[in-house]
Design brief:
Distance between the termini: 33 Å
Largest sheet: 6 strands, antiparallel
Shape: globular
Structural class: alpha/beta
CATH topology of the largest domain: Rossmann fold
Order of helices and strands: EHEHHEHEHEHEEEEEEEEEEE
CATH class of the largest domain: Alpha Beta
Number of strands: 16
């Protein structure tokens, strides 16, 4: 039984400079660093594809001097709770180290282990500024591939979701334009963002929108602004498809900046 360990978790797909900084800083917390590596299925749920299979990602991590162990865990609930439980089986104390894009208000692990004196939670490990992103790397690859292959549209940007799906139409530094498809009777999670604001234009159908404590309906051609930090939700309470054009503005424009407060699909 070890006295203490540091645990980090993630997909690491692909591994990049931000991950390396994260792991180096985490190793300073304890002389034994464990990486809880998310499954291929988790990656597929998050971004439609696993860019690198589990064993490949595991072997790369194990080759790094700062990493002592890589474990798999049950991530069907999209949390690292099982990874923490596994670490408690061989260590008296577990320090769960989170990167700069996570906080006490957007990690489900705190709710489960908040009363456990053998678990410590720390944040902004590796710095609060995001050095790189696996999603950025893959998006850049797609754009470059399309550019040199006559816009053959190597397409992994069309993402399915339990409420419908979304396409990234265009993005640049500080902005992203997306198209959201919400199926009849479906709704997105009640959520907010730390790092971005959003503009929604209803392209087709009728959207039931919650913004803060307000509830309103928007029809085709109507628009609403979502400030940074304000809770919001889109619902399609009709029998027809709903299409929303979404413009995001901010310094972090990926799934890591979604804080879910309520969700019909167990993703809180």
């Amino acid at each position: 039984m070890k006295k203490n360990i540091c645990l980090v978790t993630g997909g690491f797909d692909p591994i990049h400079s931000g991950h390396i900084q994260y792991l180096k800083e985490a190793k300073k917390i304890s002389d034994y660093l464990v990486v809880g590596l998310n499954s291929d299925d988790w990656l597929i749920r998050k971004k439609k594809v696993a860019f690198m299979p589990f064993e490949e990602r595991k072997n790369i991590l194990l080759s790094m001097e700062v990493v002592n162990s890589v474990i798999d865990f049950n991530d069907l609930d999209n949390s690292a709770c099982d990874a923490i439980s596994k670490c408690l089986e061989f260590s008296q104390r577990v320090v769960f180290a989170n990167g700069g894009d996570r906080g006490r208000d957007n990690i489900p692990e705190i709710e489960k282990f908040k009363d456990n004196q053998n678990i410590d939670f720390i944040f902004s490990v590796g710095g609060s500024d995001k050095l790189n992103s696996s999603s950025w790397i893959i998006d850049d690859f797609v754009k470059n591939y399309n550019a040199v292959n006559n816009n053959s549209q190597y397409d992994i940007l069309n993402i399915k979701a339990p409420w419908g799906g979304h396409d990234t139409i265009v993005e640049g530094e500080g902005y992203k334009l997306k198209q959201l498809f919400v199926t009849p009777g479906s709704k997105l999670s009640l959520q907010y963002h730390h790092h971005r604001s959003e503009h929604w234009v209803v392209a087709k159908g009728t959207a039931s929108v919650q913004l803060g404590e307000k509830h309103l309906e928007l029809n085709s051609g109507e628009y609403i602004y979502i400030p940074t930090g304000e809770k919001h939700r889109i619902s399609n309470n009709t029998n027809s498809d709903l299409i929303i054009i979404e413009v995001q503005n901010g310094n972090i424009l990926d799934e890591s900046d979604i804080v879910r407060l309520e969700d019909s699909f167990g993703r809180v």
